[in-house]
Design goal:
Radius of gyration: 18 Å
Number of strands: 13
Strand content: 35-45%
Largest sheet: 5 strands, antiparallel
Organism: Papaver somniferum
Strand order of the largest sheet: 1-2-3-4-5
Shape: globular
Keywords: Repeat
InterPro entries: C1-like_sf, DC1
Helix content: under 10%
Structural class: mainly beta
Number of helices: 3
Order of helices and strands: EEEEEHEEEHEEEEEH
Protein name: DC1 domain-containing protein
Pfam families: C1_2
């Protein structure tokens, strides 16, 4: 587990990047849909890509993630960026579910809580999920920002589907919104 982290910008405009997850120089591109080879989640738009016969992509968010993360999503402990070496198909091993989106963390790049892991509870987070803000201004509630919170499962005011435990909410207006619908 873990690796020596090195992110070296090749140009000052961030068009090229040497990243510890890949052996070739990566170029910033912004076309179409892709699967991130680091976290294994679907992405669209900006990403770093290797064109050295690799067909290798990484979210801009995954490439820029700090080694240690303090976040409102897991406020009691800092999270460590983890890169697992080994077989590229190692992402097929399910480590646990992301603390935000509740999808399995199947990729080789993710955040984990060392304290919760020792207690066998485990807390995992996709790098892209780590960027959700604590408050969101949204047209669904023009009077109050929506706050990131956990609570009982409710229904999303926008799409009418079930909200997971973590979602955005305006308490005074009783408005609940999926993070996907809010951002």
């Amino acid at each position: 587990m873990g690796a020596m982290f090195s992110k070296e910008l090749v140009s000052s405009k961030n068009k090229y990047l040497h990243h510890f997850t890949h052996r070739h120089t990566l170029k910033l591109v912004s076309e179409g849909w892709f699967i991130c080879n680091a976290c294994r989640l679907l992405g669209m738009g900006l990403r770093y890509r290797c064109n050295e016969l690799c067909d290798w992509d990484i979210h801009e968010t995954c490439a820029a993630g700090p080694e240690v993360l303090s976040t409102h999503i897991h406020p009691d402990h800092q999270l460590n960026l983890t890169w697992t070496k080994g077989n590229p198909d190692e992402h097929l091993v399910k480590r646990g579910r992301c603390g935000v989106c509740d999808e399995y963390v199947n990729g080789r790049l993710f955040y984990s809580c060392p304290f919760c892991s020792r207690k066998r509870v485990g807390f995992f987070l996709h790098p892209t999920c780590s960027t959700l803000p604590p408050l969101v201004n949204h047209p669904i509630d023009k009077n109050h920002p929506l706050a990131w919170q956990s609570g009982p499962q409710t229904w999303c005011t926008i799409c009418r589907k079930r909200c997971p435990i973590w979602h955005y909410r305006c308490e005074p207006c009783s408005v609940d919104v999926h993070f996907e619908c809010a951002c």
